[in-house]
Design a protein that fits this description.
- There is one protein chain.
- This protein is mainly α.
- The chain contains ten helices and two strands.
Length: 203
């Protein structure tokens, strides 16, 4: 009994498929006839015509034998073009690069770093995680407020501030007339040397 049911179902399915294929073939032929009637001997296809045949090439196995107005490779090229245009639209709609950081988070990073100038980026990241905010270290580095560094002093200012603390030491030997060797240690205080030097040389 089961074999009979399977045979009947298979026959009905084949009849339905055959009838559907016949209807699709009639649709394809009528469409091509309408194109010829509309444009004459040299058919001019509109986007709707290309869309129809792109769909037929995917849904119907016998579309190549029925196609007359263009070559089958032309329909395949239409389908590939539609595929490229579809993914191009998706890529343009997608957001490029890293997502932007909300203004509230940027302001919070600046506020925390300004209130705690000795904190580094890892410490600020840890405090933000305690608040349920996960940000990258590069984001904290970008928006944290860094304390301004004082300008570097000039050499003249450095000497004026530290001359009293600087000394130069040199050790040398001197041969005397009696062929004796004297050991000489020289200690120079820069504070006195700087005071004795002319202003032009002190620079």
């Amino acid at each position: 009994m089961q074999a009979v049911v399977i045979a009947v179902v298979t026959s009905l399915a084949s009849v339905v498929r055959s009838r559907m294929a016949l209807q699709i073939e009639i649709l394809a032929l009528r469409h091509q006839l309408a194109v010829y009637q509309r444009a004459g001997r040299r058919p001019r296809l509109v986007p709707a015509d290309r869309l129809l045949w792109a769909w037929l090439s995917r849904a119907w196995a016998g579309w190549r034998e029925t196609l007359v107005i263009v070559q089958p490779r032309t329909v395949i090229s239409w389908q590939r073009k539609r595929f490229r245009e579809y993914w191009t639209r998706l890529s343009r709609q997608a957001q490029r690069g890293r997502p932007s950081v909300a203004k509230e988070i940027r302001d919070l990073v600046r506020k925390i770093s300004a209130a705690n100038p000795t904190w580094g980026s890892p410490r600020i990241m840890g405090e933000l995680r305690k608040l349920g905010i996960a940000v990258a270290k590069s984001t904290v580095e970008k928006y944290r407020v860094r304390p301004s560094k004082p300008p570097s002093p000039s050499w003249r200012t450095f000497l004026a501030n530290h001359a009293k603390d600087l000394v130069s030491i040199d050790f040398l030997t001197v041969a005397t007339v009696r062929f004796e060797i004297l050991f000489v240690l020289i200690i120079l205080a820069h504070e006195r040397a700087t005071l004795c030097m002319p202003p032009s040389e002190a620079r």
